[in-house]
Amino acid sequence: MAAARRALGERRVGHAGTLDPAATGLLVVLAGRATRLARFVALLPKRYRGTVRFGCETSTDDATGEPLERDAGWRERSDAEIAAAVARVAARPAQVPPQVSAKKVAGERAYRLARRGESLELAAVPVAIHELSAGPLDREAGDLVLEVRCGTGTYVRAIARDLGRELGTRAHLGALRRLAIGEWRVEDALPLAALELAPPALRPLADVVRHLPVLEIGGSNAEAIAHGRKIEEPARFEGPVAVFGTGQLLAVAEWREGLYAPLVVLTS
Predict the structure, then answer these.
(1) Does the pLDDT value for residue 114 go beyond 90?
(2) Which pLDDT does position 191 carry in this prediction?
(3) Are 235 and 252 found together in one domain?
(4) Based on the number of CB atoms within 10 Å of its own CB, is 32 exposed (0-12), middle (13-18) or buried (19 or more)?
(5) Which of 2, 118, 202, 252 has its CA 20 to 30 A from that of 210?
(6) What CATH number does residue 238 fall under?
(7) What is the C-alpha to C-alpha distance for residues 18 and 193, in angstroms, rounded to an integer?
(8) pLDDT in tens, 36-46
(9) Exposed, middle or buried by CB within 10 Å (0-12, 13-18, 19+), for 1?
(10) Pairing relation of β-strands 241-245 and 214-217?
(11) Is 154 within the bounds of a domain?
(12) Both 31 and 92 in a single domain?
């Protein structure tokens, strides 16, 4: 983020969804008032390509951790058994997060407790794995490439770990690349080096919420919501809506008890 602040000349810079330190791929960077909209982007489904490496679990469930249990049983698993295990893992409604993760345990981040050597009992949390597919197993290297489309809070590291266990062996995530967040694609992204060389014009604020329903208002309602007040409108949408007045994004609001209440105001 420090590099983005320097390149953009903007103090307020944030992102919509962290990447693991060893991961590559798309990071949506928000500047100025757009930082207020990060939570609406972070909730979008994400798409990843990951490499499962069979034969060993690690303390972090990826290649950065210390090796733990080893098992070569994956060599005996057929392609049909692997495909069935992938389908079972994809159908699970919950997963246990990695020991080294940002999940909170008694008010403290799990990764801090793990780094102090404290034993953790993380509870399974609901997740949404919308799509999970696998290529053929590289039987020389023990690698299996996965394509994952999932909801926020889902750990691909945990998918790799669980797939190994589902097959009666051990595995961790060898590599991970984020391909998309909602409609934002890595192919359209700018490498950090290019950003530092020649910062581009920032995309319009409205692009950040283009996935939300749109509510067009005017007159006194536009003035009211721009000042953080609730408004009455006949149209009703479920969940957050992008509120526009005279072509300008004024706020993101939500229907509550017969009125639209602003969640975020963007006019100042």
Answers:
(1) no
(2) 86
(3) yes
(4) middle
(5) 2
(6) 2.30.130.10
(7) 19
(8) 999 999 889 99
(9) exposed
(10) parallel
(11) yes
(12) no
pLDDT of residue 254: 95
| Domain region containing 227 | 212-265
Task: Please say whether the beta carbons of 50 and 129 come within 8 A.
Answer: no
| Domain membership flag for residue 123 | yes
Side chain identity, residue 259? L
| Backbone φ/ψ region at 55: left (φ over 0), alpha (ψ -120 to 50), beta | left
**Is residue 102 predicted with pLDDT exceeding 70?**
no
Based on the fold, state whether residues 171 and 56 are members of the same structural domain: yes
Q: How far apart are CA 211 and CA 208, in angstroms?
A: 8
**Which residues, in sequence order, are CB contacts of 235 under 8 Å at separation 6+?**
215
| Unique residue bearing structure tokens 């770990």 | 161
Q: What is the DSSP string of 37-64?
A: GHHHHHTS-EEEEEEEEETEEETTSBTT
- For the annotated catalytic residues, the residue numbers are 20
Say if CB 242 and CB 212 are below 8 A apart. yes
CA-to-CA distance for 23 and 30, rounded, in angstroms? Answer: 20
Average pLDDT over residues 208-231: 94
Domain boundary among 140, 173, 197: 197
Cα Rg of the chain, angstroms: 22
Residue 107 in any domain: the answer is yes
Helix 156-166 × helix 79-90 angle, to 10° = 130
The tally of domains found in the chain comes to 3
pTM of the predicted model, to two decimals? 0.89
Mean pLDDT computed over 65-75: 95
Do residue 35 and residue 114 come from a single domain? no
DSSP 73: G
| CB-count burial class (<10 Å; 0-12, 13-18, 19+) for 105 | middle
In a domain, 206, yes or no: no
